Amino acid sequence: MGSPNSEGQAIDWNHAPKQVDGIEVNPVADEYVVYQANRGRVHFLNLTAVLVLEMCTGRVRAGEMPGLLKDAYHLAEPPTAEVAECLATLLDEGLVT
After folding, report:
1. How many angstroms separate the CA atoms of 32 and 79, rounded?
2. Domains held by the chain: number
3. Distance between CA 93 and CA 58 in Å, rounded?
4. Alpha helices in 1-97 (DSSP H)
C-alpha cells in the first residue's frame, strides 16, 4: 500500500508516473514556473518539486524517487513522506499521470 494523497487515495509506489504532454518548465530566480497550456494554468514549484517532476518520465517508479532524492541531497533518510505529498500534488494538479 502507499501513502494517501490529499484526496485520500494511496500513492502506488510501483507506478512510474509520467509528465503530461504540453507543459513548459522555466526557471525563475529560486523556483520554477510550470505553464500548463491545455488548462491555462501556471504552477510555481521549488527545486525539489521540479526534480520530482523531472523524474516523472514513465521509467522511474515512485518508490525509487525517495532514494534518488536522498542521494542527490545527501540526506540521512529518504524523504518518503515528502515525495508522496509532492506526487499527490502533481497528480491532483494534472501535471503527471
Report:
1. 21
2. 1
3. 17
4. 47-55, 65-73, 80-92
Looking at the domain assignment, is residue 13 inside a domain? Answer: no
3-state secondary structure of 5: coil
C-alpha cell at 85: 505529498
* Domain of 27, in residue numbers: 23-92
Query: pLDDT digit string (tens) for 31-80?
Result: 999 999 888 999 999 999 999 999 999 999 999 999 999 999 999 999 99
Provide the β-strand partners of residue 18. Answer: 57
What's the grid cell of residue 26?
Answer: 522555466
What's the distance, CA 85 to chain centroid? 8
Task: Look at residues 22, 53, 51, 46 and name the one whose alpha carbon lies nearest to residue 32.
Answer: 46
Beta bridge partners of 61: none
